[in-house]
């Protein structure tokens, strides 16, 4: 299987739930790595199309999809759409080692707006937050949005909601979250948890 590798070439902020898109590049800012079966790039129209088994990694965030289309607008903002074939889902996995947290998000489609820094999961959307391997929050809906500028989530029910058109939220008590964090802190001797994201 032929693989195409693009390393830090498009300054994509990706679909990271902690999107860093339009800020100046810092010395410690992570590069974007994209693996795919094929890549087509149009410099005149500022578009890139990654096709086939796409794996996008940026720092402690990984996105998987069948296709990822990127476009840069006249203002220099990046916009992206990730899609999959029927019976599959776009997935986003993110680690937050200092808090011993992982985020797993999935949907039939995902979009990213670099100007507003809003990520949308569309269709059968589920976002799960775990602490020390224990699920603490779950948000399910037809559409789930994350605004990284404001640090806010929103969700809508609809025909493609996992729960009969409704939004479903499960939130654990803060005491349970604190207990899970304490367990992990003890397990790792006060150090951040190790990453499970493989690169390259």
Automatic annotation (TrEMBL):
* Occurrences of domain Organic solvent tolerance-like N-terminal (ranges): 34-151
Organism of origin: Pelistega suis
Q: Which GO terms describe its cellular component?
A: cell outer membrane; outer membrane-bounded periplasmic space
Q: What does this protein do?
A: Involved in the assembly of lipopolysaccharide (LPS). Required for the translocation of LPS from the inner membrane to the outer membrane.
The name under which this protein is listed is Lipopolysaccharide export system protein LptA
| Record has Transport as a keyword | yes
Signal peptide span per the entry? Answer: 1-21
- For whether the record's keyword set contains Signal, the answer is yes
Q: Which GO terms describe its biological process?
A: Gram-negative-bacterium-type cell outer membrane assembly; lipopolysaccharide transport
Location of the protein in the cell: Periplasm
Query: Organism's domain of life?
Result: Bacteria
Molecular function terms from GO: glycolipid transfer activity; lipopolysaccharide binding
Query: Which Pfam families does the protein's record reference?
Result: LptD_N
Main localization (coarse): periplasm
Q: Which family does it belong to?
A: Belongs to the LptA family.
Record-linked InterPro entries: LPS_export_LptA, LptA, OstA-like_N
Q: How does it assemble?
A: Component of the lipopolysaccharide transport and assembly complex.
| Alphabetic keyword roster | Periplasm, Signal, Transport
């Amino acid at each position: 299987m032929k693989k195409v590798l693009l390393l830090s070439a498009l300054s994509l902020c990706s679909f990271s739930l902690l999107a860093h898109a339009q800020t100046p590049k810092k010395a410690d800012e992570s590069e974007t790595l994209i693996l795919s079966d094929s890549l087509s790039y149009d410099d005149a129209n500022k578009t890139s199309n990654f096709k086939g088994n796409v794996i996008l990694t940026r720092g402690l965030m990984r996105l998987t999809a069948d296709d990822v289309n990127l476009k840069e607008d006249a203002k220099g903002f990046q916009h992206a759409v990730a899609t999959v074939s029927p019976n599959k889902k776009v997935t986003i996995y993110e680690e937050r080692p200092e808090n011993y947290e992982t985020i797993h998000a999935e949907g039939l489609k995902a979009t990213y707006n670099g100007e507003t820094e809003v990520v949308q999961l569309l269709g059968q959307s589920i976002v799960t937050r775990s602490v020390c391997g224990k699920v603490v929050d779950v948000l399910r809906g037809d559409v789930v949005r994350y605004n990284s500028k404001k640090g806010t989530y929103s969700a809508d029910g609809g025909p493609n909601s996992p729960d009969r058109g409704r939004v479903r939220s499960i939130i654990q008590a803060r005491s349970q979250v604190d207990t899970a964090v304490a367990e992990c802190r003890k397990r790792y001797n006060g150090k951040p948890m190790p990453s499970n994201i493989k690169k390259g």
